[in-house]
């Protein structure tokens, strides 16, 4: 599978088989994540893979946006203590979130190559997830990601047309 | 899973949904409510496993709920269909 095929075929997976994901695959995903671009090369990200079934179930419970009973939940955090010491105010406003998003896309594409399905999730209760995982106050949760073996085919994705989203050079009124 | 655990799961889902909805897209409100309704249907089904109308209601919700982010019109139609189906359950 080349990169274009991976980009075109990736879908958000919301139903998973009841089958564990080997640790070596998760390490590969973390490696893909840490290889993503990072603003000012800050790399304040932390990749927390929740794999203990009882803990996965609890995080799942407090995350209304999660679905499909994934065997693994990845919690992508930013170490804001590190970010503010080594980065700037912009790291806090947008840099760390941007980095986490780019890492997430790397992870989702690497997962696809292994036959794994993923879904990025922002609907979770921050306080509850933080408490369940015993996260330091200085860690900011950027997103959750369900990871597992897809059960069935995903739905077709609706995408805006190229002409709806593409502008060359200057914006002109006809684009509206 | 016993009833106490199932009710607790539903309670957690409803409260965390309510807590999160303030800053979520508007359509997530009906989405969370219909998801909670489907879970409640599941609990009712345990007490009435042969109820075909309940099974049909669960099927209607299941088939339509994920359309909230891809086909809003179909999603809202599903909510109407689910509401109409309730008449058969009375």
Automatic annotation (TrEMBL), chain A:
Q: What Gene3D superfamilies does its record include?
A: NADH Oxidase
- MF-aspect GO terms: oxidoreductase activity
Coiled-coil regions listed in the entry: none
Would I find Oxidoreductase among this entry's keywords?
yes
A Pfam family matched in the record: Nitroreductase
Q: Is Oxidoreductase one of the keywords UniProt gives this record?
A: yes
Q: Which UniProt keywords apply?
A: Oxidoreductase
State the source organism's domain of life: Bacteria
Where in this chain does the record put each Nitroreductase domain?
7-55, 70-149
Family statement: Belongs to the nitroreductase family.
Could you identify this protein by its name?
Answer: Nitroreductase
TrEMBL record, chain B:
Superkingdom of the source species: Bacteria
The record's listing under InterPro entries reads: DUF6092 (IPR046074)
For this entry, the protein name equals: Uncharacterized protein
Gene source species: Faecalicatena orotica
